[in-house]
Design a protein that fits this description.
The structure holds 2 protein chains of 2 kinds. Chain A is an all-beta fold. Chain A has no helices and 11 strands. In chain A, the strands form 2 sheets. In chain A, strands 2, 4, 5, 9, 10 and 11 form a 6-stranded mixed sheet that branches. Chain A has a 5-stranded antiparallel sheet with strand order 1-3-8-7-6, with no helix packed on it. Chain A is globular, with a radius of gyration of 13 Å. In chain B, strands 2, 4, 5, 6, 9, 10 and 11 form a 7-stranded mixed sheet that branches. Chain B has a 4-stranded antiparallel sheet with strand order 1-3-8-7, with no helix packed on it. In chain B, strand 5 and strand 6 form a beta hairpin. The chains are: A mainly beta, B mainly beta.
């Protein structure tokens, strides 16, 4: 089993739609969690950190369920500019040693 | 800050040649990571350093790969000899621990696209 698994996608959704991505991780000692976004032929960039209580940043909401080892990302009112690959990232080190990336889920928002 | 700086952006080389990729982390960051990204395998961690010391190199695929960090502002990833299957995008990233929250995130350079023919 891979350490971090994500929905394979791709997700093709119309503008304005709500879309949710799921991610599971296998290492119960994982310390911190992130969602990164990667545009075509660009580097990954942090979208948001994921906190135990869940957190929201504008149209984006992240949730963490440690018991189920599950992370989610919800995008509301999707825009064309949201089209990208979304990477679930788990840090399994105690102090930032090991960022393990999921395979990514590709999102295409259509006009 | 200019962010993580990698060079070159693109490299095309012949099989058997030595390739050296370079990285300048963000000033003040004490962790540096080298990743490789391919369509088949996604983003894989090759090695990471803490305070210039290699901590985990278990992701380095073969002895042909080596990485150094002679000081806090510079790291290299060397492939010698290179092979076509080494073709990939190589990313360098750096991070730091935030004293206030203990959280950390990795900031990536723009990557080096390596093609070995």
């Amino acid at each position: 089993r891979k350490e971090v698994e994500q929905d394979p996608g791709p997700f093709n959704v119309p503008e304005g739609a709500t879309v949710a991505f799921n991610c599971t991780y296998s290492n119960s000692a994982s310390q911190s969690f992130f969602w990164y976004r990667q545009d075509c032929r660009k580097e990954p960039k942090l979208l948001m950190s994921v906190y135990s209580s869940g957190n929201e940043d504008g149209r984006f909401t992240a949730q963490l369920n440690r018991a189920s080892q599950y992370i989610s990302l919800l995008i509301r009112d999707s825009k064309l500019s949201d089209s990208a690959t979304y990477l679930c990232v788990v840090n399994i080190g105690n102090y930032g040693q090991n960022f393990v990336f999921g395979p990514g889920t590709r999102l295409s928002v259509l006009p | 800050d200019a962010g993580v700086i990698q060079s070159p952006r693109h490299e095309v080389t012949e099989m058997g040649q030595e390739v050296t990729l370079r990285c300048k982390p963000i000033s003040g960051h004490d962790y540096l990571f080298w990743y490789r990204q391919t369509m088949m395998r996604g983003l894989e961690l090759l090695i990471y350093f803490n305070n210039n010391v290699p901590i985990d190199d278990s992701g380095m695929p073969e002895d042909r790969f080596s990485a150094k960090m002679p000081n806090a502002s510079f790291s290299t990833l060397k492939i010698q000899p290179s092979e076509p299957r080494d073709s990939a995008v190589y990313f360098c990233a750096s991070s730091q621990i935030l004293a206030s929250t203990g959280n950390t995130e990795a900031f990536f350079g723009q990557g080096t696209r390596l093609t070995v023919v």
